[in-house]
């Protein structure tokens, strides 16, 4: 019988002694006898090639307590030789038995006897592995038992799979970098050899690659290489088609598709507004918008190589984003370029930019500097340039120059050769160029004024303007004559001379005090009358033209001139005159006024200035006024004139309301005011600013 042959073959193949063979023969014969009385239920298992199947062996179920399994065998179909066995004859239990793989099929099998039921795990490769598998278990006391499993190897279901390298793809492939290369592989497995197939690639219904090949394993493969992925392929389905022919793509056998997901670079970036104009110190907001990037681009702001972080208002949409930059530009940032950079974070190194140049408007920023044409200090005759440095936006109009003169010497009518230019060239420097200079520029945003630049001109002494040059004196009278000069440097020495160079000047003595020399001179004879000369020297040289002082006998003054009445009211008027020549001696002015036709002596006043203000007078009255001057020599001619107070609407008799003390106090107040104004005018004449 079938099992008897199996046992007999196993006994003959066992490498044992003759006695052991006799024992085994008797044992297996008895086992075959017992197997005839054991019922065997056949199990069916379906499996596909390329998978692992588990075959049960219920025959190895637990047996009686005083019994144990000696061996377990696996057979296929009607083969007499087991392909796998477990020998536990010399082991305490089947779990410690020796496993033997007795054929090529056994090399793909693993028998786990510790599970319930025991399982044989077999790697199924082809349809040839189908058949009937028998598990036989021999026990020490029990009958031999068997389990039968019918293994059905199914024909493989055709599959169409898409790979990227070793990675199996489904639904969506990627994401990939825009512009990168991609290679996809499509494999058809399990197709019947009798049914020839073609594997094709299509995009948007068009065949793009039909170069397939059949592998030795029977698989059909097509490798599709996409070079420089374009954004137009984003989420486009790339389809692999298995068909009987290239013309049968409308009726494919199998279809597999993947959509291409791409990282897309930005399409464009724009900054608004585009002119970047703002006023210094005000807030400028720039908005940068970009679109076309997936995922949305990140936006950064830059000024040269410096990143700007005062950013707000980030917004991200499907493929667009925006960012708002707030700046408070300064004048120094005028003309700087602001750059907006849009970059896909998944595509480092790939970016798009837009830029805007700042147009910062601001008032002129002005500074004044000096350019000399010699290495030494500035002296008379040198040339120097004053440069007015102007930084402005928008441009300025003509530059205005101002000069505060230090010397008392009046400058010529045409002060400077260049007026209104940013460069002021002073040629052939003179002492009157000494002083403080400024420049000023104006544009539509405001006015800017420079620093003050002091210009010192090294020059010989010159006479200071405005000093007394005529002295009247009696013979034997001692005069104090002051000679004052201006010089740079200010360390000077003086000497004096007289117009009559023959005479000795023992009657002249002087002392020096800085830039002043005080001479004491006593004329004792007519020959001593004439001109005194004063010279000064400093390190720049001797004074070119001496200061001249005339000494003469005083005479009576000339009469006042150009007298007129001003500010007439119903009770007051003001009389002003110009002083005539004083005759070489201090003069004083005298005023007399009385109502015309009146026998009253009227009012008499005197003043060092020809200025008289009268108040408290009767209205509608005519006054006779006389003015003259007097010095120590004599009296001038008298000037007479008439004036009338205005009539008042008030009716009734008028009386003389002249108050002598009131009139005197009014005159003194006016005299003090005039002296104050005269002193201020003199100071302004000595050091006054003027525009160039």
Written description of the protein model:
This protein has 692 residues and is mainly beta. The chain folds into 6 domains: 117 residues, Immunoglobulins (Immunoglobulin-like); 105 residues, Immunoglobulin-like (Sandwich); 94 residues, Immunoglobulin-like (Sandwich), CATH 2.60.40.10; 86 residues, Immunoglobulins (Immunoglobulin-like); 93 residues, Immunoglobulin-like; 89 residues, Immunoglobulin-like. The strands form 12 sheets. A 6-stranded mixed beta sheet has the order 1-9-8-3-4-5, with helices on one face. The chain has a 5-stranded antiparallel beta sheet with strand order 11-10-13-17-16, with no helix packed on it. A 5-stranded mixed beta sheet has the order 12-19-18-14-15, with no helix packed on it. Helix 1 runs antiparallel to helix 2. The N terminus and C terminus are likely disordered.
CATH topology of the largest domain: Immunoglobulin-like
Give the count of structural domains.
6
How would the global form be characterised?
rod-shaped
By CATH reckoning, the class of the largest domain would read Mainly Beta
Largest sheet: 6 strands, mixed
Number of helices: 3
Specify the oligomeric state.
Answer: single chain
Helix content estimate: under 10%
The overall average pLDDT, rounded, is 83
| Strands side by side in the biggest sheet | 1-9-8-3-4-5
C-alpha Rg (nearest Å): 65 Å
N-to-C span = 141 Å
CATH superfamily of the largest domain: Immunoglobulins
Q: Beta-strand percentage?
A: over 45%
Q: What's the architecture of the largest domain in CATH terms?
A: Sandwich
Q: Give the low-confidence spans.
A: 1-15, 31-39, 651-667, 679-692
Domain Ig-like: 50-150, 158-206, 266-357, 364-456, 461-550
Keywords: Disulfide bond, Membrane, Transmembrane, Transmembrane helix
Pfam families: C2-set_2, Ig_3
Organism: Araneus ventricosus (Orbweaver spider)
């Amino acid at each position: 019988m079938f099992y008897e042959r199996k046992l007999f073959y196993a006994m003959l193949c066992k490498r044992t002694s003759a006695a052991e063979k006799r024992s085994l023969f008797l044992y297996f014969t008895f086992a075959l006898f017992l197997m005839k009385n054991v019922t065997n239920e056949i199990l069916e298992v379906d499996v596909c090639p390329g998978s692992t199947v588990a075959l049960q062996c219920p025959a190895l179920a637990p047996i009686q307590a005083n019994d144990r399994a000696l061996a377990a065998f696996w057979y296929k179909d009607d083969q007499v030789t087991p392909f796998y066995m477990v020998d536990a004859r010399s082991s305490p239990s089947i779990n410690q038995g020796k496993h033997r793989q007795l054929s090529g099929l056994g090399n793909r099998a693993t028998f786990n006897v510790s599970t319930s039921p025991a399982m044989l795990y077999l790697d199924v490769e082809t349809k040839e592995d189908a058949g009937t598998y028998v598990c036989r278990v021999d026990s020490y006391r029990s009958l031999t038992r068997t389990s039968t499993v019918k293994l059905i190897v199914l024909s493989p279901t055709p599959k169409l799979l898409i790979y990227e390298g070793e990675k199996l793809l489904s639904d969506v492939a990627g994401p990939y970098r825009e512009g990168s290369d991609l290679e996809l592989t499509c494999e058809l497995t399990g197709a019947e050899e009798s049914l020839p197939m073609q594997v094709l690639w299509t995009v948007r219904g068009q065949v793009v690659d039909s170069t397939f090949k059949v592998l030795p394993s029977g698989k059909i493969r097509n490798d599709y290489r996409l070079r420089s992925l374009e954004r137009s392929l984003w989420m486009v389905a790339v389809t692999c088609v298995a068909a009987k022919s290239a013309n049968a793509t409308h009726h494919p056998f199998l279809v597999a598709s993947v959509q291409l997901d791409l990282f897309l670079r930005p399409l464009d970036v724009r900054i608004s507004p585009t002119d970047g104009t703002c006023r210094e110190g005000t807030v400028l907001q720039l908005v940068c918008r970009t679109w076309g990037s997936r995922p949305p681009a990140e936006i950064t702001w830059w000024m040269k190589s410096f990143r700007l972080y005062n950013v707000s208002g980030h917004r991200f949409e499907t493929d667009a984003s925006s960012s708002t930059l707030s700046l408070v530009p300064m004048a120094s940032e005028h003309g700087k370029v602001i750059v907006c950079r849009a970059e896909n974070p998944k595509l480092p190194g790939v970016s798009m930019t837009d830029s805007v140049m700042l147009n910062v408007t601001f008032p002129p920023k002005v500074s004044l500097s000096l350019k000399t044409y010699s290495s030494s200090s500035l002296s008379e005759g040198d040339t120097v340039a004053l440069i007015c440095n102007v930084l402005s936006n928008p441009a300025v109009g003509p530059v205005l120059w101002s000069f505060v003169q230090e010397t008392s010497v009046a400058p010529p009518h045409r002060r400077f050769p260049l007026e209104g230019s940013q460069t002021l060239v002073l040629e052939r420097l003179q002492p009157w160029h000494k002083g403080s200079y400024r420049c000023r520029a104006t544009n539509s945003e405001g006015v800017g004024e420079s620093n003050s630049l002091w210009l010192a001109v090294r020059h010989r002494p010159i006479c200071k303007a405005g000093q007394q040059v005529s002295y009247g004196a009696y013979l034997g009278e001692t005069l104090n004559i002051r000679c004052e000069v201006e010089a740079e440097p200010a360390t000077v020495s003086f000497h004096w001379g007289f117009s009559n160079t023959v005479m000795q000047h023992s009657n002249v003595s002087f002392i020096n005090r800085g830039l002043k020399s005080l001479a004491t001179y006593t004329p004792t004879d007519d020959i001593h009358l004439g001109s005194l000369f004063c010279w000064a020297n400093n390190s720049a040289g001797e004074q070119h033209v001496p200061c001249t002082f005339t000494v003469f006998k005083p005479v009576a003054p000339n009469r006042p001139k150009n007298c007129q009445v001003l500010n007439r009211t119903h009770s007051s008027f003001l009389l002003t005159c110009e002083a005539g020549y004083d005759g070489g001696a201090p003069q004083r002015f005298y005023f007399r006024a009385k109502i015309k036709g009146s026998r009253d002596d009227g009012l008499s006043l005197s003043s060092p200035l020809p200025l008289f203000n009268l108040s408290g007078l009767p209205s509608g009255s005519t006054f006779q006024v006389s003015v003259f001057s007097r010095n120590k020599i004599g009296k001038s001619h008298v000037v007479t004139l008439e004036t009338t107070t205005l009539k008042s609407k008030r009716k009734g008799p008028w009386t003389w309301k002249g108050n002598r003390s009131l009139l005197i106090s009014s005159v003194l107040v006016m005299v003090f005011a005039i002296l104050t104004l005269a002193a201020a005018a003199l100071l302004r004449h000595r050091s006054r600013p003027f525009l160039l």
